[in-house]
User: Fold this.
Amino acid sequence: MGIPKKFLKNVQLKQKSRNHARRLELWEEGWNASGTFVPKGVLYEDMDRDFIKFVEDDLILTLDGKRVPVFFLTIQRWAEFARTWQFTDKDRNVQIPFVTIVRQPDIQFGTNPVTQYTIPQKQRFDYMKVPNYDGDSVGVDVYKIPQPIAVNLTYEVRFFSYRMREINKFNKIVMQAFQSRQKYINCNGHYFPIILESIGDESTIDQFEAKRFYVQSFEMQLLGYIMDEEDYEVTPAIKRVVTLFETEPKIVPSLNATDGLDSGRSTDEFTTTMLWEVGMSDLGSPLITTESNPVKVTSSALLTTATLQNVRDCKELSGDCAGFSPKIYVSSDKGVSFGAIQLPFQVLPDYLLYFNGLIIDGEQDASVTVHGYINKI
Amino acid sequence: MENKQNQQTKVPITRLNKFFDDQDFDLEVDFGREYMEGDLHMSVVLFSIDIEETDTDDVYKEVNSENVRFFPPVEILVNLELVAGENQTYNPNGSMRYRDFGNLTFNVYEKQLREKGVDIKYGDYVGYRYTESDMKFWVVVNDGKINADNEHTIFGYKGAVRTVECAVADPNEFTAI
Assistant:
């Protein structure tokens, strides 16, 4: 009886995700498989396990109400017996029909174009940044993983049977599974294609005087990759921290300072005079200098003001002021070099001071006296 | 699907009935056992694997030697042949030489196995004490379960003897000591 038109065999209650939403879904699947922020590792054993599951679940064949057993075989004889003993007869022979899986031990580098030899030397790459909190500050852990290593695993699946009808059934199931040439399996959240490479026949039909049975062989190749969780790396990200310090200088404030002043505190004045006497060298009248006779500072002090005697006070250039006067120079390296300063200025013991200035009356001595307050730094 | 060959219907054996019956068969077996178990008195030890207790690998069903669990060892009196092992190398270029024991083949009367309540299965291990202090192990590769051929019957009446073939087992695969 035909199925009526518009009869739906499979009703999709939830619309399937597409494009970016589907990619996010796949990413979440990887998350869920591992239970962590990084994808679950996948090794050969995982691929073998899921390949067996694929054969058992997707290539399932039921004959006379009985499921055809599937045996994954290794070289250990006892292991073979452990798998097959439930399906043996009185003489301990496995009863046909059955399916065997043998994996070729030599795993080759993969041909899956998704992962090729592109990144040398197991270079790890940032996979994601995971926020963390160490009880004091919020930071980030950087999860790094290396590029997966592509591998090809070759499996030989054989179906043993006495009847052509059973061979047809199993062959049909395999053909349907691989109608798009490849079949994907989900291995620890990673999708790997399986390709049906070839179908062969190893039947013993030509054995005229021996036991005869059909054997159909299917060579399948799993294009996978390995990701070893031991190679994952979790490193703390660089934290940008602003650190603030509150400091209190031990300098005795000047008289002009008002912040935090204690009215009861006393200050010691500092005064020193740079004297030019008639007859000392000059720079050409009316410009005089005490460079040849600098004054040595005897204590740490903050110089704030200066008083002039017989020296012009020229802060700006004008008709009367051919240059700036006075200009005070200080040396912190015992006279090796001097530099011009402006008041206020902090001096320390052993500093040397001299001035250049315009003299008013060249027949008399001239001086510049600087005033300030003794402090300790 | 029930295998009709496994049905337990019992039909008396009437072949050779003019001069051979079950009592004669038992007598012949006793003669043979007297020679094999009394005169020769060569023994091997059977380590039958306990499938349920052995903790196997989930995917490959493989086990390490220390994880194999076996039933209490049973001494079996047999007629055995131990062939010489070959001088071989692991590498095809002739390096990494080794020489192990050869294959072990032994005959055992089924009646003895029934009396001791044991069976020999494919994959079981067999120990043979070749000196006072040394025991070597083999793994059963042919349990000789089918013994209805002429060689293993007495006058074609019924199978009496099993021929068990064993391949040498590496200590990494099994060791009972």
Remarks:
- Chain B touches chain A through 26 residues (CB under 8 Å).
- The CA atoms of residues 148 and 159 of chain B lie 5 Å apart.
- Residues 14-168 of chain B form one domain.
- Chain B has a mean pLDDT of 89.
